[in-house]
Design brief:
This protein is α/β, with parallel strands linked by helices. About 30% of the residues lie in helices and about 10% in strands. The chain has a three-stranded parallel β-sheet with strand order 3-4-6. The structure holds flavin mononucleotide (FMN). Flavin mononucleotide binds next to loops.
């Protein structure tokens, strides 16, 4: 095959590669189908997103490309890993704004993954050292987590009563609104 024919074939392959074709996702027009998945980083000191995250996410942003943020906790009780970002307070929302702006400046689209760890937690992460909340009072077996040398011994959870569930749903609702506010 001549060099020019080879180049033509390569161009055709690129043009038809489905990953690189546009996709309409609701009101978002993605220019390709490569999505950055949520990747926990544990670099948001005291659950406040840091300025260095603007650099991290903007380096991974592409025009019309979708990024899903690292899992972001919806409340104090939702925490189970050190230094994961939150999105329940005004300070956190303000901190997210510069990160989102940096992604938007490159034409990227960013969604926040909102998160409650349930019983994957210990007393030390919980307000007033209370029991982590869950759908069950059964305790998880210890697990080795990233950023830890020893398996984590989870604290026995408290099973939520049915009438407490709307409060958690509301925390998710507020977190979603906060994420939209950060992206305005
Ligand atoms: C370091 C690390 C952190 C991760 N953090 C999250 C997270 O915050 N939320 C989530 O839903 N998945 C998380 N994942 C799962 C990745 O999103 C998943 O590995 C990725 O989508 C690729 O899928 P695969 O592992 O099934 O190939 C994490 C994975 C790794 C390796």
């Amino acid at each position: 095959m001549k060099e020019s024919e080879c180049a033509d074939t390569q161009t055709q392959q690129q043009e038809t590669m489905p990953l690189l074709t546009p996709y309409k996702m609701g009101r978002f027009n993605l220019s390709h189908r490569l999505v950055m998945p949520p990747l926990t980083r544990q670099r948001s000191w005291n659950n406040i997103p840091q300025p260095h995250a603007a650099l991290y996410y903007s380096q991974r942003a592409t025009k019309g490309g979708l990024i899903i943020t690292e899992a972001t906790v919806i409340s104090e009780a939702a925490r189970g890993y050190k230094d994961t970002p939150g999105i329940w307070s005004k300070e956190q929302v303000e901190a997210w704004k510069s990160i989102v702006d940096a992604v938007h400046a490159k034409g990227g689209i960013i969604f926040c993954q909102i998160w409650h760890v349930g019983r994957v937690s210990t007393y030390e992460y919980q307000p007033n050292g209370q029991a982590p909340i869950s759908s069950t009072s059964n305790v998880l077996k210890p697990q080795l987590q990233t950023n830890a040398d020893e398996p984590v011994k989870f604290s026995p959870p408290r099973r939520l009563s049915t009438d407490e569930i709307p409060q958690i749903v509301n925390e998710f609702r507020l977190a979603a609104r906060n994420a939209m506010e950060a992206g305005k």
